Amino acid sequence: MIGLEVSGGIWKATINRPEKANSLTAAMLTELAEIAERAGHEGARALVLTGAGRVFSAGADLEEAHAGLATNPVWERLSGAIAALPCLTIAALNGTVAGGAMGMVLACDLRVMVAGGKVFYPVMKLGFLPQPSDVPRLRSLVGPSRAAMILMAGQKITAEEAMSWGLIDRVVDAEALPDTVHALAADSVGASPAHATAIKRMIWA
Question: 172, 147 in Cβ contact below 8 A?
Protein backbone atom coordinates (compact mmCIF):
# COMPACT_ATOMS: atom_id res chain seq x y z
CA MET A 1 0.00 0.00 0.00
CA ILE A 2 3.06 2.21 -0.37
CA GLY A 3 4.13 3.04 -3.90
CA LEU A 4 7.66 4.17 -4.77
CA GLU A 5 8.79 5.93 -7.93
CA VAL A 6 12.42 6.91 -8.48
CA SER A 7 13.19 9.30 -11.32
CA GLY A 8 15.99 11.79 -11.87
CA GLY A 9 17.15 11.55 -8.28
CA ILE A 10 13.66 12.22 -6.86
CA TRP A 11 12.16 9.46 -4.74
CA LYS A 12 8.38 9.75 -4.47
CA ALA A 13 6.64 7.60 -1.87
CA THR A 14 2.84 7.45 -2.18
CA ILE A 15 0.48 6.27 0.54
CA ASN A 16 -1.99 4.24 -1.49
CA ARG A 17 -4.97 3.20 0.62
CA PRO A 18 -7.57 5.74 -0.50
CA GLU A 19 -10.52 3.52 0.37
CA LYS A 20 -9.46 3.91 4.04
CA ALA A 21 -8.46 7.60 3.76
CA ASN A 22 -4.83 6.43 3.59
CA SER A 23 -4.91 5.41 7.25
CA LEU A 24 -1.61 3.87 8.27
CA THR A 25 -0.89 0.37 9.51
CA ALA A 26 2.30 -0.75 11.20
CA ALA A 27 3.38 -2.48 8.00
CA MET A 28 2.86 0.70 5.97
CA LEU A 29 4.80 2.79 8.47
CA THR A 30 7.62 0.28 8.44
CA GLU A 31 7.73 0.37 4.65
CA LEU A 32 7.84 4.18 4.64
CA ALA A 33 10.65 4.15 7.21
CA GLU A 34 12.59 1.65 5.11
CA ILE A 35 12.16 3.84 2.03
CA ALA A 36 13.46 6.90 3.90
CA GLU A 37 16.42 4.93 5.22
CA ARG A 38 17.19 3.55 1.75
CA ALA A 39 16.94 7.03 0.28
CA GLY A 40 19.71 8.11 2.61
CA HIS A 41 21.93 5.15 1.79
CA GLU A 42 21.29 5.17 -1.96
CA GLY A 43 21.89 8.82 -2.73
CA ALA A 44 18.40 10.22 -3.25
CA ARG A 45 18.52 13.89 -4.20
CA ALA A 46 15.00 14.61 -2.93
CA LEU A 47 12.32 12.62 -1.12
CA VAL A 48 8.65 13.45 -1.75
CA LEU A 49 5.84 12.04 0.39
CA THR A 50 2.31 12.15 -0.99
CA GLY A 51 -0.97 10.25 -0.97
CA ALA A 52 -3.42 8.74 -3.42
CA GLY A 53 -6.91 10.19 -3.65
CA ARG A 54 -8.19 13.26 -1.83
CA VAL A 55 -6.66 12.70 1.62
CA PHE A 56 -2.96 12.60 2.44
CA SER A 57 -3.58 10.42 5.49
CA ALA A 58 -6.13 10.14 8.27
CA GLY A 59 -3.39 8.94 10.63
CA ALA A 60 -3.27 5.57 12.32
CA ASP A 61 -5.62 2.79 11.31
CA LEU A 62 -8.00 2.93 14.28
CA GLU A 63 -8.15 -0.81 14.86
CA GLU A 64 -4.37 -1.02 14.99
CA ALA A 65 -4.15 2.18 17.05
CA HIS A 66 -6.27 0.67 19.80
CA ALA A 67 -4.22 -2.53 19.56
CA GLY A 68 -0.98 -0.67 20.30
CA LEU A 69 0.05 1.11 17.10
CA ALA A 70 -0.46 4.54 18.71
CA THR A 71 2.58 3.95 20.93
CA ASN A 72 4.65 1.90 18.49
CA PRO A 73 8.21 3.25 18.03
CA VAL A 74 7.82 2.91 14.26
CA TRP A 75 6.37 6.44 14.15
CA GLU A 76 9.58 7.88 15.58
CA ARG A 77 11.67 5.63 13.36
CA LEU A 78 9.92 7.10 10.32
CA SER A 79 10.08 10.76 11.30
CA GLY A 80 13.68 10.35 12.48
CA ALA A 81 14.72 8.78 9.19
CA ILE A 82 13.15 11.64 7.24
CA ALA A 83 14.71 14.31 9.45
CA ALA A 84 18.14 12.67 9.11
CA LEU A 85 18.16 12.69 5.31
CA PRO A 86 20.86 14.93 3.79
CA CYS A 87 18.65 15.75 0.79
CA LEU A 88 15.58 17.96 0.41
CA THR A 89 12.37 16.42 1.76
CA ILE A 90 8.91 17.60 0.70
CA ALA A 91 5.47 16.66 1.97
CA ALA A 92 3.19 16.99 -1.07
CA LEU A 93 -0.12 17.05 0.75
CA ASN A 94 -2.83 16.07 -1.73
CA GLY A 95 -5.46 16.62 0.97
CA THR A 96 -6.05 16.60 4.69
CA VAL A 97 -3.39 15.29 7.07
CA ALA A 98 -4.48 14.08 10.49
CA GLY A 99 -3.21 12.43 13.64
CA GLY A 100 0.02 10.52 13.66
CA ALA A 101 0.57 11.18 9.96
CA MET A 102 1.59 14.67 11.05
CA GLY A 103 4.89 13.25 12.27
CA MET A 104 6.33 12.51 8.84
CA VAL A 105 4.98 15.83 7.54
CA LEU A 106 6.58 17.85 10.33
CA ALA A 107 9.89 16.06 9.73
CA CYS A 108 10.03 17.28 6.11
CA ASP A 109 11.86 20.41 5.03
CA LEU A 110 8.89 21.74 3.04
CA ARG A 111 5.14 21.23 3.12
CA VAL A 112 2.90 21.99 0.12
CA MET A 113 -0.86 21.44 0.48
CA VAL A 114 -3.75 21.54 -1.95
CA ALA A 115 -6.41 24.19 -1.41
CA GLY A 116 -9.21 22.81 0.73
CA GLY A 117 -6.97 20.55 2.78
CA LYS A 118 -6.95 20.65 6.58
CA VAL A 119 -4.53 19.84 9.37
CA PHE A 120 -5.61 18.31 12.66
CA TYR A 121 -4.12 16.12 15.37
CA PRO A 122 -6.92 14.92 17.71
CA VAL A 123 -4.77 13.36 20.43
CA MET A 124 -6.71 15.06 23.23
CA LYS A 125 -10.02 13.60 22.06
CA LEU A 126 -8.62 10.14 21.30
CA GLY A 127 -6.66 9.81 24.54
CA PHE A 128 -3.23 9.27 22.96
CA LEU A 129 -0.08 11.30 23.40
CA PRO A 130 1.52 12.81 20.30
CA GLN A 131 4.80 11.27 19.24
CA PRO A 132 7.69 12.81 21.23
CA SER A 133 9.43 14.55 18.32
CA ASP A 134 6.19 15.92 16.85
CA VAL A 135 5.60 18.49 19.57
CA PRO A 136 8.94 20.35 19.38
CA ARG A 137 8.80 20.32 15.58
CA LEU A 138 5.26 21.69 15.58
CA ARG A 139 6.10 24.30 18.23
CA SER A 140 9.16 25.47 16.29
CA LEU A 141 6.99 26.11 13.23
CA VAL A 142 3.91 27.72 14.76
CA GLY A 143 4.77 28.65 18.36
CA PRO A 144 3.38 27.22 21.60
CA SER A 145 -0.07 28.83 21.53
CA ARG A 146 -0.87 27.62 18.03
CA ALA A 147 0.54 24.20 18.86
CA ALA A 148 -1.95 24.16 21.74
CA MET A 149 -4.74 25.12 19.33
CA ILE A 150 -3.99 21.97 17.36
CA LEU A 151 -3.01 19.52 20.11
CA MET A 152 -5.13 20.67 23.07
CA ALA A 153 -8.09 22.51 21.52
CA GLY A 154 -8.35 19.97 18.70
CA GLN A 155 -8.86 22.60 16.02
CA LYS A 156 -8.98 21.71 12.34
CA ILE A 157 -6.76 24.24 10.60
CA THR A 158 -7.38 25.05 6.94
CA ALA A 159 -4.53 25.00 4.44
CA GLU A 160 -4.69 28.77 4.10
CA GLU A 161 -4.61 29.40 7.84
CA ALA A 162 -1.84 26.82 8.27
CA MET A 163 0.21 28.72 5.68
CA SER A 164 -0.31 31.99 7.55
CA TRP A 165 0.96 30.23 10.69
CA GLY A 166 4.07 28.88 8.95
CA LEU A 167 2.97 25.25 9.18
CA ILE A 168 2.35 24.96 5.42
CA ASP A 169 4.78 26.63 3.01
CA ARG A 170 2.62 26.85 -0.10
CA VAL A 171 -1.04 26.22 -1.01
CA VAL A 172 -1.80 25.23 -4.61
CA ASP A 173 -4.64 23.84 -6.70
CA ALA A 174 -4.66 20.05 -6.85
CA GLU A 175 -3.66 19.89 -10.50
CA ALA A 176 -0.63 22.12 -9.82
CA LEU A 177 0.76 20.00 -6.96
CA PRO A 178 3.09 17.73 -9.00
CA ASP A 179 4.62 20.57 -11.01
CA THR A 180 5.02 22.74 -7.92
CA VAL A 181 6.86 20.00 -6.05
CA HIS A 182 9.08 19.24 -9.04
CA ALA A 183 9.99 22.93 -9.35
CA LEU A 184 10.80 23.18 -5.65
CA ALA A 185 13.13 20.17 -5.90
CA ALA A 186 14.87 21.27 -9.10
CA ASP A 187 17.71 23.32 -7.62
CA SER A 188 18.60 20.70 -5.01
CA VAL A 189 18.49 17.90 -7.57
CA GLY A 190 20.68 19.92 -9.92
CA ALA A 191 23.30 20.75 -7.29
CA SER A 192 26.08 18.47 -6.17
CA PRO A 193 25.04 16.23 -3.25
CA ALA A 194 27.77 17.70 -1.04
CA HIS A 195 26.60 21.26 -1.72
CA ALA A 196 22.95 20.44 -1.04
CA THR A 197 23.87 18.63 2.16
CA ALA A 198 26.04 21.51 3.38
CA ILE A 199 23.25 24.03 2.90
CA LYS A 200 20.69 21.78 4.58
CA ARG A 201 22.97 21.38 7.60
CA MET A 202 23.35 25.15 7.85
CA ILE A 203 19.56 25.58 7.80
CA TRP A 204 18.81 22.98 10.45
CA ALA A 205 21.89 23.45 12.64
Answer: no
